[in-house]
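Narrative summary of target 7.
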Amino acid sequence: MGHKRRRPKHLSRKLLKIREALGLTQADLTDQLGVGIRVSEISKYENDQREPSLQVLLAYARLANIPLEQIVDDKVDLRI
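Modeled conformation, tokenized:
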């Protein structure tokens, strides 16, 4: 029936780069994203142990003021 969605290879690296570019700790980022996630989840995203939901990815994009495509598309470089 459905197709399994391919996981972006560079997602974890891009999420870490966004947080570092914004100068935020993982705890600060959870507050800034405003989507009710815990610091442990940020760590899992950045260490490629878990993939964030679309809601979380949209929050990252809005916080960094970049198009969501830059985060999720491996063919597009992150410009932050």
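The chain has one domain: 11-72.
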